[in-house]
Batch of 4 targets.
Target 1
Amino acid sequence: MQWTDTANPTYFHKVVDCQWACPAHTPVPEYIRLIAQGRHDEAYWVNWVSNVFPGVLGRTCDRPCEPACRRGRVEEKQAAKPEPVAICRLKRVCADNKSDEFRAMVPKPAARNGKRVACVGAGPASLAVARDLALEGYAVTVFDGEAKPGGFIRTQIPRFRLPERVIDEECGYILGLGVEWRAGQRVGSMKALLAEGWDAVFVGCGAPRGRDLALPGRDETRAQVHIGIDWLSSVSFGHVTAVAPRVIVLGGGNTAMDCCRSARRLGASNVTVAVRSGYAQMKASPWEKEDAEHEGIPILDFHVPLAFEHVDGKLTGMRFKKAKPGSEAGEEVVIPCDEVLIAVGQENSFPWIERDAGIAFGDDGLPVLDKLSFQSSLPQVFFGGDAAFGPKNIITAVAHGHEAAVSIDRLLHGEPVTQRPPPHVNLVSQKMGIHEWSYDNAVTLDLRSKVPWAAAEAALASIKVEVELGFDAAAALKEAGRCLNCDVQTVFAPKLCIECDACVDICPMDCITFTADGPGLRERLNAPALNLMQDIYVEGGLKTGRVMAKDEDVCLHCGLCAERCPTGAWDMQKFMLITAKAGAASRDHATRKEVA
C-alpha cells in the first residue's frame, strides 16, 4: 500500500472540503473561528483577500462549499435532515459587523509600474482583476455601459436579496485603489480598444443575452412577454415598477427564482413557475426554490411550453404539454396569464469583437482560451467570468479574475502564463500544553440555525426590503460552533507510536485502524470507507509492520486521538493554504522584481 504523501499540499487541502470546493479557495474554517471570537474585521479580511466580495457573496453565493461540508455527512445518523454549516450566511455576519477600521486594513497600492490594463465590463471577474493588479501598481481602467460598477451583481440580483449599499461599498473598496472608472462607456470595438496601446486587456462582459423561445404566438404577444434578465435589469433601474395580475415564469434556474419573487413584490396576485425538467433536476439552488415556495409561488415541473395563447394580440395564457417523467407522452394544458417572463438561460454575445481582430472563437461562440491562464489566441487579451466559458456564478467569476490577473502579471514580466507557483502552505501545531489546544475542539450536536426573515407583510410589499435579516451575535456564535475545524489536521508521527490502540478505542467515528499492509484496505477498516472522493491517510514504518489507516471522510477533527495518545504520536496541526495572487509571489524566483 502506498503511504500518504502529506508533504503534498493537495492532500490536506482536500481534507478541508469547504475550501477545496470553493473556486476561490477561501479559508472557511479560519474565518468562522474568527467570527466565533468576535473578530469580524479579521474575518472579513480573510474573505476579502480570497473572494473580494464578502458582503455580496454572504447573501448571494451559490455555495459550492456547503454541499461539500463534512458536517452534513457526520450528521447522517443524528438528524432527519443533515445539513452543513451555514458557511455563506456566516460570511455575511463578518460583513455586517465589521468596524469602520477595516478600511485601514486595505493595503496601499504599490507605486505605478508604467503598465496599463483595460477591463471590459464591471462585473465580479473584471473587478477582481482590477483589485489584484491595482495593488501591484498597474494602471487599471474599467469600462462599462452602466453608471455604476457591479455588472450583473447590480443589474440582475433583486434588491430584496442584495441591498445596493452593499454593492456600492464593496465596489468602492476596489475603485478606491486608484482604479479608473469609465462609467457609461460601452466598448464598441475590440480593434479600436487595442489601438489605444493597452499592455493587456481583460474581457469580463458576462453573458448578457437572455435566450428567447420561438413558439407560436411569440410575435403577437411581444408586449406582454419579456426576457428575464432584461426585465430584472429594468426592475433594478426602476424602469419597471408594476406587473400584470397573473404572471408565468418559464425556467428553472436562479434567474427564474429571482423573476418570480420580484413579480410577487411588484403586485402580481398569481405567480407560477413552469419548468420542463423535473423538480430535482432544476438548476436553481435548493434554497432558492425553497424561498420561492415559502412565498407561496408554485413550481410546476415537467411542463413543456408549446405556445403563447392570445386573442387579437393580447396574451391570455400559455399552452403546455404536461409530460410524464421518462416519457414523451403527456396531455396539453393551458394556464391563464397576463404576462410571461422567459428565464430559460443566457448566452454570450460578442458583436463588438471583430472576427479579424486576432481572437479565435469556437463553434459555440465562445473565445478559444487556455483553461489555466484564460489567455486568448491574441496573447495580450484575456477573458474571465461568464464571458470565458459561459454562465456560472459570482464566486467562479472571482476565481477567474484571480487567475487572469496572475497571467497578466506574468505576461508583463516576460514569464510563461501557463505556469503557476505553488500556494503558500503551512502546518502549525495547536498544542499549548498537555491536553490544551488553541482552538475549541468540543463538537456540538446543534442542528443548523435558521436565518430570520423580515415579516412577510413588509417583505412582500416592497422590492427593496431585504428578506433575510442575517444572524445576530448569539445565533452566529452557535452556528460557528457547528464547524468541525477541518483545517486542524490530525497529523501522525509513526516513529513515536507504540501501537497501544488508545486512539482506536477513543475515536467516536471509528476512523482509525491499525491493520496489515496490503490491498483491500478500505474494506478492512473498522468502519468501511465508502466515499472514494476522500483519501485514506496511510502511514507505515510501525514496529510491527502494520500500517495506520485513517478515514478522512467522517473524521470530526475533535482531537481526542491526540489527547489520548501517551507518546504524542498524534498532533493537531492547523493547515493554512493561500493561493498566490498577482504580484511578486506569483512570479518565477529569478524575476521577482518591479516591472521595468
Target 2
Amino acid sequence: MPPTTEMPPRPDTATLLDWLTPLYGGRGAALIMDRASASAQKHGLPAGDAGPGRPVDQSLAVLITYGDMVQAPGEVPLATLRRFLRERVPDVLPAVHVLPFYPYSSDDGFAVIDYRAVDRNLGDWSDVRALAAERELMFDLVLNHISRGSQWFANYLADADPGRDYFIEVDPATDLRAVVRPRSTPLLAEVPTARGTRHLWATFSEDQIDLDFANPAVLAEFVDIIFGYVAAGARLLRLDAVAFLWKRIGTPCIHLPETHRVIKFLRALLAGYAPQVLLVTETNVPHRENISYLTDGDEAHLAYQFALPPLLLHTLLTGDGAALREWAASLPALPPGCHFFNFTASHDGIGVRAVENILDDAQRDALVATVRERGGFVSTRAGNDGVHHPYELNIAYVSALAGDDGHAAARFLCSQAVALSLRGVPGVYFHSLVGTPNDRRGVEASGRYRSINRRRWDHAELAAKLDGEGEPARIFRGMRHLLDTRAAQPAFHPDAAQRIVDLGDHLFVVERQSLDGRQTLLAVHNLTDREVRLSTSVLPEANRWWDLVAGRSMPATIREVALAPYQVAWFSN
C-alpha cells in the first residue's frame, strides 16, 4: 500500500466515551481510554500510511482456511499456504481468513491459550506478516471465551492479576433457564481454586471459559490485542461468537444491548485508529437476530449470512427455489458501508438456527435426514424446553450435494454461483474451492463431528488432484472461473442494486445493476436436474447478450435459451 502524506485520523474521544460510560461509568471508561491510548502508541497507531485499505468492491472475495489446511515436508504450514495461493489462485481470492493461528488447547483453535502468539506448529509472526503483504487478512478475535490453559486462567486460580476477576462466577443454584444455549454441555464449569470450588460460566465447553466483559479491564486487554493484530496486518476482524458476549442473570444472555454497545465502541475505536480495518460479526442465530448487527449502520461492517447455506442446500436437494427466492427478496437494504458476508460452508457445520422461521419443521427434518444418509452428522443444542434440537449439520458441502446422477459437480458449482451473485462480499471455504468430500477418518481420529469438514491436505497430493480430471479438479477450475468472472463485473459490486426475479420455482434469478447504471446483469441458475427453457424477453435490453459464464454472445433475435441441469448463466447487456 503506497504511503500517504495525509495526516492520520484523530480518534473521536467524545464518541468513544458515549459508548463506554453507560457500560462502565466514568472511572471504567477512563481506564479503557487510557489503556487504548497507550496501546495505540505501543503499536504505532494511527499509522500515517494506513489509508482506507483495499476498496470493498466486486473484486473482494475471502478464502476461509486454517493455517495448516495444506502442508508440505520441511516447510511451516503458513508458508505452504502462501505458496499454494500464489501458485493456484494468484488473483481471484485477494483476501484470506486464516482461522485461529494462536496456541490453543481444544476446538481446533477456538480455545485460545495466548492471543498474542502464533502457534509454533504453523509458523511465527513473520509468516503472518509475509502472508499479509500479499493478501488482505482476516484475523479471528475469539473474545467470548479463553482456554483453561491460558495465563489469565492460571492467574484466576492463583488469585493473581491479570485474571483474578476476568471470569464470571455463578452460584450453581441460580436459575439460568432463560439463557439461550448453543450447546448441550453444562453452562457452568466446576473449578477448584485457591479460594475453594467455584462455578464459572462456560457457554461452549468446560475448556472454554467465558470472559467477564462487565469488567473494563477485560475490554482494555482486547483493545491492546486488536491493535497488535492491526500492526501485524489484519484488515478484517472476525468477532467469534460475539452474540454471547455480555451476561445478565434473568435474561437470555444473547444479543444484549450491552453487547451491541461494545461492538459499536470497537467500530468507533477503529474508525479513529485503524480506519482500514473492517469488523465481521459471527452470530449463528435466527436470521432477523443475525442482521441486527448491520442495520444500525454503526456496528459491524459485515455479518455472516447464516441463512444462506441451509437454504441453498434445501433448494438444490429439492429443486424448489421458492423458499430461497422469498427469503432473498425480503433482504433489507443495508446502510452504506455495511454488507452481508455470503458463504455456503466454513470450518463449522451448516447451522440450521438461521432458518428456524424460514423453513418449516418438515423441510428442516428432511435436511437432517439427507445429511445422515450422505455420511454426515447432526449436532444439537439444549433448548429451554429441555429438548435437544438440531443446531448444526456436520458434512462437507460437496458431499451434501453429491449424487450418482452425473450432476454432482454442476450442482455444487450452481450453489456457489448463487452465493456469488447475491449482494454482499463472498466467502469461500478452502474445501469448497478444491472440492473436498467428507473426511470420516478425521472424525474417527478426533471424536468431533466438525472434523468431517476440516481435512488437512498434503500439498503434493492435493496438487495431483487439482491437475487431474476428477471431480475436485472440475470443481476447482469451475470455482476459479466463477470468481474471476465475478470480479470483472461492476454489477456485482457489494452495494450494486439487487432485484429478485420470479421466473418459477425451478430457477433462481437475480438482477444486479452497477452503481453507475451502465451494466445490467441477470444471473440465472437452473436449480433442477432437468433442462429448463428461459424466454429471452426477461433479459436486459441490448443488441446482443453476453453469457459471461459460458464466454459467448447471443444475438437479440434469439427467443429462448435452454439451460442444462444446474447450469449457471450470467447474462450481461
Target 3
Amino acid sequence: MVPRLPAYRRNRGASELMQSAVDLGRAGLPSKMRRMSQRRAPPWLVTAAVLVALFALLPLAFIIWIAVQTGWETVSALVFRPRVGELLVNTTLLVLLTVPIAIILSVALAWLTERSDLPGARLWAWLCVAPLAIPAFVHSYAWITMVPGLHGLWAGVLVSVIAYFPFLYLPISAALRRLDPALEDAAAALGLGPWRIFWRVVMPQLRLAICGGSLLVGLHLLAEYGLYVFIRFDTFTTAIVDQFQSTFNGPAANMLAGVLVTCCFVLLGLEVLVRGEERYARVGSGAARSQQRTNLGRATIPSLALLVVTTLLALGVPFVTIGRWLIAGGAEVWRLDEIGLALGQTLFLALAGALLATVAAMPMAWISIRAPGPLQRLLEGCNYIVGSLPGVVIALALVTITVRIALPLYQTLFTILVAYALMFLPRALVSLRASIAQAPVELERAASSLGRRPLNALWSTTIRLSAPGAAAGMALVALGIMNELTATQMLAPNGTRTLAMAFWSYSGEIDYASAAPYAFIMVAMSLPLTWVLYVQSKRMAGR
C-alpha cells in the first residue's frame, strides 16, 4: 500500500507533475547545429513550390478580388441581410453542439478500447474507425430513409456526430497509446484518485489530439453539402450551391463563400488559441512498458452497451438501409453498364487527381524537410490554408475564373483535376513529409557527388525511398476524390457521372433502390483504406 502524503505535499507534487506532463519550455538544437543540418534548396524546387502555393491561394485571392470589384455597398447589402444571419446561426449552432459531443464520445471510446480491459477491445477499436468508410451523405441517406421525419438542427447534430467522430477517435486513441505510464504512477503515488489522474494528467496530454481532431470535424461541418440537404438543414454550403445552381448569381454566391471562408479562419484561430504553445514531449524515451489496463468491473456491461449503440448507429443503420434497398430493388437496380461507366470514371478521376496532388506536393514536402526556414513555413501555410477551404468555395472560384477569363477551360478535365489537387493537397503533403523525413539525406548528397544532376539524384534516392509514403498519400487523396460531390457537380465535364454523382442523382429523384448499389460500391471501396489507417495508427505507437 502506498503511504499517503500530507495535503500540502500532494498538491505541490501534483503541480510539479502537471508541469512535467505539459512542459512550457521550448526545446531546440543550438543555432549552429541547426544551420549545419540544413541545406539550400535548388532554385527549380523553390520555383515549383512557389507556383503551387500561388495556385493554392487562388480561390482565396479571387473571393477578395470579387469583393473589391463588387463594391462595398453591394457587398454590405449581400452580407448584412437576414438570410446570412440565419445561415450563420445555423452553422454556429451546428458546430457548437456537434464538436463537444463528438469529443466526449471519442474520448470515452478511445479510453475504453485502449486503456481498459474491455472484452474484444481490438475489434471495437476497428469498428470505431470503420465509419470513415461511409461518406457523410450516405449516412444521411440511410437515416432519412429509415426515419423520414428526421429534419432540422438536432438531426444534423446526430448524423454529423455519427459520421465524423472517427476523425477525433483516431488521434485521441493514438495519443493514449503513446502516453508514458510513469506520470500516472507518480500521480497515484501522490495520492490522486483515478478521476483526478485522468483530468489532471491524461487530459492535458490529449489536448493536441483533441484540438486537431476538433478542427478537422469543424472544417468538415462547414464544407459538407449532401448530408444537410437530405435532412433539410440550411448551412452556408447548401445556400451557396443552391444560389449557384438556381440563378448562377456570382456576387451573391461569392459573398456567401466569403462569409464561409471567414468562419473557417475563425475555427483555425480558435484551434491555435486553445492548443497554446505548450510542449507535449519529455526528454528521454520514458517507460518502455505498456500501460496497465483498468479493470472495468461492474462498468463492463454499460461500456459494452455504449460501443454497441455507437456501432449500430454508425454502421448498422447504413448497412441495414443499403441492404434493404438492394433487396427491394432486386437485380434490376444493378444496371451494369451505368455502374461500370460510373466506376471507371470515378477511378480515373481519383487516380489522376491523386497523382497530380502528390506531384504538386513533392517540392514543398522536400523543402520542409531538407531546407526548412521562413520561406518554407510561409509556403507550407499557403498549402494548408487551401485545405481548410470548403470544396464549394474552390469550385465556385474556379467556375468564375474560367467563365470570365479562360472560358475554354470551363467544365474540362483540367479544371476538375486542378480543383481536386487544391482540395486534397494537404493530405498528400503530410504523407510525403513523413516519408521524406525517413529517407537519409546522405544518399541524395552521395548521388550528387557522383555526378548526377539534381533532379536525377532526387529521383534515384529520395523519391524512390519515399514511394510508400507517396502511395499512402495518393490513397488518401483518392479516397477523398471518390467521395467528393460538390466540386464534381460544379466542375466536371458534360457527360461525367461518378459514383457519388450517380448516387446523388437517383436519391434526388427519391429512387433510393437505384441509389443503393452506388452507395454499396463506395463503401466497399473505402473500407480497405480505413483498415490501413487503423493499422498505421497502431504501428505509429509501436504495436
Target 4
Amino acid sequence: MVLSGVFAACIALPARADDLSEIQAIREEMRRLEAKVERLESHHAHAAGNGGGHLFARHGTRQNSLSDGGAHTHPIDPGAVPDLRHLSIGGPAVSADSQTAAEEANAALQDTNAQQQPQLNMDSSSPLSITQTGVDSLPPVFRIGGVSVRLGGFIDFSNIYRSKNLTSGPATSWGSFPYANSPNAHTGEYRPSAQLTRLSVLLQGTPTDHQVLSAYIETDFGGAAGTANSYQTNSYTPRIRQAYMTYSDTKWGFHVLAGQAWSLTTGYTQGLLSRHEQLPPVVDNNQIPGIVFTRVPQIRFIKDFGRKWWVGLSIEAPQVAFAESDGMLDDGTLQPGVGMRGGTDVLYNNTGTGMLNPNAKYSMDVAPDLVLKGALDTKLAHYEVYGLARWFKALEKAYGSNSIRERISFAGGVGGDITVHAIPKYLQVTGNVLAGKGIGRYGPSMISDATFKADGTPAPIPELIGSLGLIGHPTDNVLLYLYGGIETAGRRSYRGLDGRQYGYGVSDLDLASCDIEQITTSTCNAQTRTVADMTVGGWWHMLQGRYGAVMTGVQYTYVQKIAFSGTNGAGGRIDPKTGGNTIYVTFRYLPFQ
C-alpha cells in the first residue's frame, strides 16, 4: 500500500524534464520490490501448505488472496514467463490453488514435462500423432473463458522421388501415371516439399458434466493459387483440411457433427467419433490406392449404446466425376444410339463462380450423399458395415425436341472395415472394402463415377475399392506398415448408330499410340480399369521431451495402372499398362506433442 501511495504521488507531480529519470528509477525499484514480495509470499504459502497460488487475469495483472482476505492487484514480474496452459482470457477465473508464482511454475514445468509429457501413440493402428496430430491427448495451452484451447500440428519436410514424372506435389495423383507415349513416362522427378506442414486447433467447453461442445480446425499448405510456383518463393496457400463443430452427450450416447470432416465411409479405429479415423500412417497426402475416404462438408448423427455398439447417419456434400470415351460428345451432343434419329444434347456440370474455383467444373447435384453405418467394438477387433446412397443428375434435350428434361440415376454401394488386434500392442491387421456403382470419388485413384446412356441419363460405373494392411510396433518408438490396395472398374457403354461403342470401358478404341514413344506427348485415349499398389514404410520416433517430438519416416510404393483393352489399329488387341515407384523420406517436428 505504501508503494502504491508513492506511485500515486509521483504521478500527481508536474512532469518536468529533470524529474523523468527519477520517476523511471522509482518505477524500476517498485517492480523489483514487487517481484521480491511475490516470491516471499509464494514461498511462505507453500511452507504453510495453503497453496498460495495466483492466477492470470486481463491486462497482465495477478490477484493474490492474502491472509486478511483482501484482494490486491500487482503487475507481473516481467522476468517471469507464465505457463500459458494456466492462462485464462476473460470469463471465469481459474482457481487460485491451480497455479503457483510465475518463476516457480517455470521451474516446475521443466520437471513435470520430463515426467508427464504425453508419448506419441505408437500402439494405435492409426497413430494420431501421424494422421491427426494427436491434439486430443495434449493438455490445454490456455483457456478463453470456459473454453479450453489445444494446439496440434507439425512442421513437415518431405522428399519425394517418383520414377515417372507426374509433376505432382506431396499428394500423388495415382491415376495419372503416364503411358509409354508420354515423354514423362521415361524420366523421374524429385520434389522436396514443406506443404504438408499442419496446424490444428481444438476448442472444447462443457455446459454440463455430461455434455461437451467442440470446435476443430485443421489446415496445411496444400493449396495452389494462380501465383503459386516453385521457382523462387514457393507461395503455396493454406487450405481447409477439416473445420467442424461437435456436440456430445455422454449420458445419452448422442453425438452430432457439422462441418468439413472425413466422410463416414472412412474406417475408424474405435467407435464412430471424429479424430478416430482409421487412416493409414502413410506420408502421401493422397493416401494410397484402395483406401476409402473423402473429406467433405457434412452433418452427422451418431448414437452409441454403451460405447460398444454404434450407429451413424451422415448427410454429405455430393460431387460427381463424369467420363466419356473418345468421340462420344461433340460440342455437348451425345452420339446417337441404335434406333435413334439423332444425338441428345446433354449438360452435366458448370464452371464455378462466387467462392468456387472458376477453373473447375462442378456437377449438377440433386441430393446429398447419404452414409448409414453400424460399428461394434470388442476386445479383439473393431467392425464396421455401411451403405452409401448417391444420386446423379444431368439435363438433356432429345433430338427434335423443344423441351429440356432432368435425368436422374441412383448410385451407391455397400462396404465394411475391420481392425483386428492380432498381437495386442505389437501387430494390427486392418482391411476395408467398398463395392457398388458410382463410387469412384471415394477412392484415391479418382476413377470416374459415371458416364452416359444414349438418351443422356447418367450411367453409374461399377467399381470395387479395397485394401489390406499390417501395422507392427516392434519397439515403443518404431512403427512399421505394409499395405496392398486395389481400385477396379467395370464397363458401362452403349452402341451407337455408327456401330462403335461409347461410354466407359469400351473395347473398340484405337490404342496403338499408347505404346509409341514420342518426345512430344501423343494422344492415348485409354480408360483406366485397375489401379493397384503395394506400400511398405515405417516411422522412427527419434526424440521426445519438453521440447516436443521429432519423427522421421520412410515409405516405398509400387503402383500399377491397367487400362481397358482396345485395338492396335491392325485388327489385334492391345492392353496398355504402366506403373511406377515412389519413395518418401520425411522429417517432422511436433512442437506440441
